[in-house]
């Protein structure tokens, strides 16, 4: 305990001597520690407003939690444990120096446990397929693009490697109040096929029309009428 207090006292001395205009080399001779230790103490105080490591560890935990707070929220939660509060700019400077970036949460589709299990089973079932097998397949899919009237982007702090982590993503919202458009297309190994853009719901009549007037012409376009194909 005494050794810990001594370290914090030395760090406080480093900051005080630096504020008095002394260089890191001069401060290290007076205090009796290395120049690099003086530099680390000054840098830590500039970034966290404290002389000990506990606040640095807490700041890192707040940044890497599953909920992913904004810089304002991180600052408020950090200041709850500090005797000398720090400003948001200090927190932002520390985050940037530590490799964090302020990014918008990426959108991801809502997948239940059942969805994930079915996708994994499908991949395992086709794991040993060859290139020739895949060349006989026609993949088709449809998607809906929504026009969102109001911006609701969520800003978080993360590193480049954390883009796809659970806390750095959010489930894509359904709807948006600004209209929508549906898009259907098919692809083969040779390239893309006929596509359809439409605004109505994809009911049985619409889907049958797509199969008759878009999927089959796609196969015919690549002269594959007699080959086996599998819409996916």
UniProtKB/TrEMBL annotation:
An example Gene Ontology biological process: DNA transposition
Domain Transposase Tc1-like: 57-128
InterPro entries: Homeodomain-like_sf (IPR009057), RNaseH_sf (IPR036397), Transposase_Tc1-like (IPR002492), WH-like_DNA-bd_sf (IPR036388)
Molecular function terms, GO-annotated: DNA binding
Protein name: Transposase Tc1-like domain-containing protein
């Amino acid at each position: 305990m005494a050794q810990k207090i001594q370290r914090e006292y030395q760090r406080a001395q480093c900051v005080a001597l630096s504020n008095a205009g002394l260089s890191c080399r001069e401060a290290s001779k007076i205090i009796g520690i290395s120049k690099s230790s003086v530099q680390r103490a000054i840098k830590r105080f500039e970034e966290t407003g404290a002389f000990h490591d506990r606040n640095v560890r807490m700041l890192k935990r707040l940044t890497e939690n599953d909920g992913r707070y904004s810089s304002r929220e991180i600052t408020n939660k950090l200041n709850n444990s500090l005797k000398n509060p720090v400003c948001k700019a200090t927190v932002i400077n520390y985050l940037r120096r530590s490799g964090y970036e302020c990014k918008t949460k990426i959108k991801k589709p809502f997948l239940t446990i059942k969805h994930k299990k079915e996708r994994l089973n499908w991949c395992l079932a086709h794991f040993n397929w060859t290139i020739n097998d895949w060349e006989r397949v026609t993949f088709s899919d449809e998607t809906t693009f929504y026009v969102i009237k109001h911006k609701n982007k969520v800003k978080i702090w993360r590193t480049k490697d954390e883009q796809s982590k659970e806390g750095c993503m959010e489930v894509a919202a359904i709807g948006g109040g600004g209209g929508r458009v549906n898009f259907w297309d098919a692809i083969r190994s040779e390239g893309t096929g006929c596509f359809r853009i439409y605004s109505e719901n994809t009911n049985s009549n619409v889907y049958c029309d797509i199969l008759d007037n878009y999927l089959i012409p796609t196969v015919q376009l690549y002269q594959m009428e007699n080959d086996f194909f599998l819409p996916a």
